[in-house]
Amino acid sequence: xxxxxxxxxxxxxxxxxxxxxxxxxxxxxxxxxxxxxxxxxxxxxxxxxxxxxxxxxxxxxxxxxxxxxxxxxxxxxxxxxxxxxxxxxxxxxxxxxxxxxxxxxxxxxxxxxxxxxxxxxxxxxxxxxxxxxxxxxxxxxxxxxxxxxxxxxxxxxxxxxxxxxxxxxxxxxxxxxxxxxxxxxxxxxxxxxxxxxxxxxxxxxxxxxxxxxxxxxxxxxxxxxxxxxxxxxxxxxxxxxxxxxxxxxxxxxxxxxxxxxxxxxxxxxxxxxxxxxxxxxxxxxxxxxxxxxxxxxxxxxxxxxxxxxxxxxxxxxxxxxxxxxxxxxxxxxxxxxxxxxxxxxxxxxxxxxxxxxxxxxxxxxxxxxxxxxxxxxxxxxxxxxxxxxxxxxxxxxxxxxxxxxxxxxxxxxxxxx
Amino acid sequence: xxxxxxxxxxxxxxxxxxxxxxxxxxxxxxxxxxxxxxxxxxxxxxxxxxxxxxxxxxxxxxxxxxxxxxxxxxxxxxxxxxxxxxxxxxxxxxxxxxxxxxxxxxxxxxxxxxxxxxxxxxxxxxxxxxxxxxxxxxx
Lengths: 417, 139
Known about the structure:
The structure holds 2 protein chains of 2 kinds.
Chain A: E1 18-19, H1 30-36, H2 38-41, H3 53-73, E2 80-83, H4 86-100, E3 107-111, H5 116-127, E4 131-135, H6 145-151, E5 156-160, H7 174-184, E6 187-191, E7 210-214, E8 225-229, H8 258-296, E9 300-302, E10 313-318, H9 323-329, E11 333-334, E12 336-337, H10 350-354, H11 359-363, E13 365-369, H12 376-395, H13 398-404
Parallel strand pairs in A: 1-11, 3-4, 3-5, 5-6, 6-7
Antiparallel strand pairs in A: 2-8, 7-8, 9-10, 10-13, 12-13
Chain B: H1 5-12, E1 27-34, E2 39-47, E3 54-62, H2 65-78, H3 83-86, H4 91-98, H5 105-125, H6 132-137
Antiparallel strand pairs in B: 1-2, 2-3
Helix pairs in contact in B: 1-2, 2-5, 4-5
């Protein structure tokens, strides 16, 4: 009888399940938790309370965090605005700029593999009379700078291009994009949620005017993020999208989430100190995983550029095996899939489709997101397990059998349903 | 998404995985679904020409766990039945047996389609007229 159930042995000392989905979220670093704890129960003041020590203490903590974040991205503390996370940061940046610069123009440029927080924000602006260009990406996931150049016109006010993609980890050439924007007098926003703390990002060197980041992708807490807003050359103005007490220089009202902000600051401080060694470590683990998979399995396809990529990301299609069925077989490993079956919409990943991959290859994709706390033993176990299950599922796959027989699957008249 | 115990059981230990000689006149092959939809099922039957009993059934499926389980279950159910009996199997029976959630109902539909396609192929090869029942429900 055929069986899919895995018989890969769990090495002694390895604890299950294994978390390898660090692009979705990351565990809180214990050092971050330690920094946050006093701000829940003892130093609980409102940072806007100006007339007692509780308030001053909270305000001081917030200003320290602002410094820590600014240092990581080469900004100054005054240029950091706190938000509830990167979705809010992206909304505030794009809607805030669109509103503030409406008289100068109504054209925004973005690209097709952006996060929904950017794409859906742009779509809403289209309803309000803005014109949005969605640049395509090349097969490696990177935009063509000539496309960007051609898309710019005298009505263009903003370019919003992510620094690193959340599914395929591909890095966009933000420095060149920013340079192009500055030459044309167009503002440049980047959703750097996956890049900050993982690869060097410097708002001056990279010509960034507005940048979104989030706490929980960098071993900080959920529910807190920041927006960098450039104050000089050019001074960027943003129309507030949340009105109220005028916090954050009027750009984002609402009582500050002091423990979250302290955590975000601490997470940035750790990233600043450890990024280089951590990146080398993660790249080593990632390449080990890739090499193991490639040495044991045929018909595997790495999605997106390997050269311009986050160190901890590997996105692979195990062709002729459907992603959700693979996840089911490796149920003690937390990864994600671009398969339609794992999404609410029953559509495969739009990011993978944008690379020109067929839906069938998109259905077969798995995203491995390695992080600070993953170990080599975990990588070895995950690789063995994936190899085992892929081999077994291929014995079950009519497509794999047909391909081995030399049948061209594209020539078959499939009865789509 | 949580899978039912029945789906997990069929996924871990799929019944009747394999390939029959599709050139044989006793064998009917149904290939349904499409790679770009994320599921393709191939279901094959070997029919006794005297009794019209399905003596052997094999499947291979590219698809999610529920698709694998639906086709595995289908082969179990049709084995030992006459072809006309096998046509009585409805996708709703599969949904019930595997406790499939609404988003996975299409997997059961595909399994029913696969049964019909395999039987249709066998009938075509053996010049058996479509029964009125089968013709009426074919889609």
